[in-house]
Automatic annotation (TrEMBL):
NCBIfam families listed in its UniProt record: lysA
Nucleotide-binding recorded as keyword: no
PROSITE patterns: ODR_DC_2_1
Protein name, entry field: Diaminopimelate decarboxylase
InterPro entries: Ala_racemase/Decarboxylase_C, DAP_deCOOHase_LysA, De-COase2_C, De-COase2_N, De-COase2_pyr-phos_BS, Orn/DAP/Arg_de-COase, PLP-binding_barrel
HAMAP family the UniProt entry points to: LysA
Residue positions binding pyridoxal 5'-phosphate: G239, E273, P274, G275, R276, Y374
SUPFAM superfamilies referenced in this protein's UniProt entry, alphabetically: Alanine racemase C-terminal domain-like, PLP-binding barrel
Binding residues annotated for substrate, in chain numbering: R276, R315, Y319, E347, Y374
Organism name: Salinisphaera dokdonensis CL-ES53
Transmembrane segments: none
Family assignment from sequence similarity: Belongs to the Orn/Lys/Arg decarboxylase class-II family. LysA subfamily.
Subunit structure: Homodimer.
Length: 420
């Protein structure tokens, strides 16, 4: 469910016509729906009713201050992977004490800052990192709360670039080594063991891998208890998939039911790190058709060159990600044909969609759907293209939550050398 709907033939974000947003803020432009984010957060939270839980939104999916602030107001915690994301959370009004810090390569300065603001937990991904966090914490005279991210070796059945729970992935520590590492951590003065963490991948559409992972991690928690190591929380990561095209992802309710019996009766808090499922379909990328270009006669390809490109939305180029591309104004009389929807960047991989049936004219506005997660977050300024504006709609109110970058922004901090 989202709040992007046609009204009188024009696609709206809640009560605002996307054509009016394009007029006011230009294109390309990301548009988010506050009501959609609120709804997804509530549905996810309500699905977990009866399970002691904390939701730590994965900031990497969309770290816009407007989005983070909205989620903080809803009561969300946050999953971060860098000090940059931590500062964003703090600036947006998020509570550092509800922050978990994931990632395989945390730097000393990042660990220091996280300890200074008092985050909830470090999700530690290697023995070397345990030692590093211990040393920093001891130097600062504090104990760092930690979980070990274990790799349960389950196949998440998703795109290989976003599967993370297999032995051969760089993430986490092998579950068979975890007990030894926990025993080591228990003896480190600068650490306080809090939890066990896992995250097996993203855009998961099957429930079985989640259940397998939780079963394996619960067995580990029992073995740790036998050794006298008490675990307070199990962080199951994020990864619940959404529908881009014809996927049938489980609902948050089904996702919760899948593991409810496994954790029932245990004195264990569950931490969730959802990203995509909270914000994915709460955003669209608005773009305008610049040029229509027939391809070579025998190639039977026709190109619609739009003003958004792979630098604005990388998912199609990087993962062959499929996003629906729809007209902002429903065409009544024009005949549709099949188009390659491409950007102006000098790469063959610069496309937003292949073989799309659309009735197009130069100047038409298009909305690339389901672009709220890993959209702007992965945008770059490749080809010296300033990153797009981001706008949040809330009912009939429109807020620019990030101004369009300027070419001057792109050159900030650079200089031409004064060669004699
Ligand atoms: N927790 C950890 C430790 C993660 O690595 C991730 C995502 C999440 C939580 C959130 O996962 P989600 O609920 O959003 O699936 N750029 C890719 C997705 C990369 C996901 C990386 N990790 C894409 O556009 O599909």
């Amino acid at each position: 469910m989202d709040h992007f709907e046609y009204r009188d033939g024009v696609l709206h974000a809640e009560d605002v016509a996307l054509s009016a947003i394009a007029e006011r803020f230009g294109t390309p432009c990301y548009v988010y729906s506050a009501a959609t984010i609120r709804r997804h957060y509530r549905v996810f939270d309500e699905a977990l009713a009866g399970i002691d839980h904390d939701i730590c939104y994965a900031v990497k999916a969309n770290g816009n201050l407007g989005v983070l602030g909205l989620l903080a107001d809803l009561g969300s915690g946050f999953d971060i992977v860098s000090v940059g994301e931590l500062e964003r959370v703090i600036t947006a009004g998020g509570d550092p004490a509800r922050v978990v810090f994931s990632g395989v390569g945390k730097r000393v300065d990042e660990i220091e800052r996280a300890l200074e603001v008092g985050i909830a937990c470090f999700n530690v991904e290697s023995e070397a990192e345990l030692e590093r966090i211990d040393a920093v914490a001891q130097r600062m005279g504090v104990r760092a709360p930690i979980s070990l991210r274990v790799n349960p070796d389950v196949d998440a059945q998703t795109h290989p670039y976003i599967a993370t729970g297999l032995k051969e992935n760089k993430f986490g520590v092998d579950i068979t080594r975890a007990e030894t590492l926990y025993a080591r951590a228990a003896g480190m003065e600068g650490l306080a063991i809090r939890g066990v963490d896992c995250h097996i991948g993203s855009q998961l559409t099957q429930l079985a891998p989640f259940r397998d992972a939780v079963e394996r991690v619960l067995a580990l928690i029992d073995r740790l208890a036998d050794q006298g190591i008490a675990i307070q929380h199990l962080d199951v990561g994020g990864g619940l998939g959404i529908r881009y095209r014809d996927e049938q992802p489980p609902s948050p309710a089904a996702y919760a039911e899948n593991i409810r019996d496994l954790v029932a009766g245990r004195d264990l808090k569950l931490v969730f790190e959802p990203g995509r499922v909270l914000v994915g379909n709460a955003g669209v990328l608005l773009t305008r058709v610049e040029v229509l270009k027939p391809g070579a006669e025998d190639a039977d390809k026709h190109f619609a060159i739009v003003d958004a490109a792979m630098n604005d939305l990388l998912r199609p180029a990087l993962y062959d990600g499929w996003h629906a591309i729809v007209p902002v104004a429903e065409a009544s009389d024009t005949v549709s044909r099949t188009w390659e929807i491409v950007g102006p960047i000098c790469e063959t991989g610069d496309f937003l969609g292949h073989d799309r049936d659309l009735a197009l004219q130069t100047g038409d506005l298009l909305a690339v759907r389901t672009a709220g997660a890993y959209g702007f977050a992965m945008a770059s300024s490749y080809n010296a293209r300033p990153r797009p504006a981001e706008v949040m709609v809330d009912g009939d109110a429109v807020h620019e939550v990030r101004a369009r970058e300027t070419v001057a922004d792109l050159m900030r901090g650079e200089q031409r050398l004064p060669f004699a």
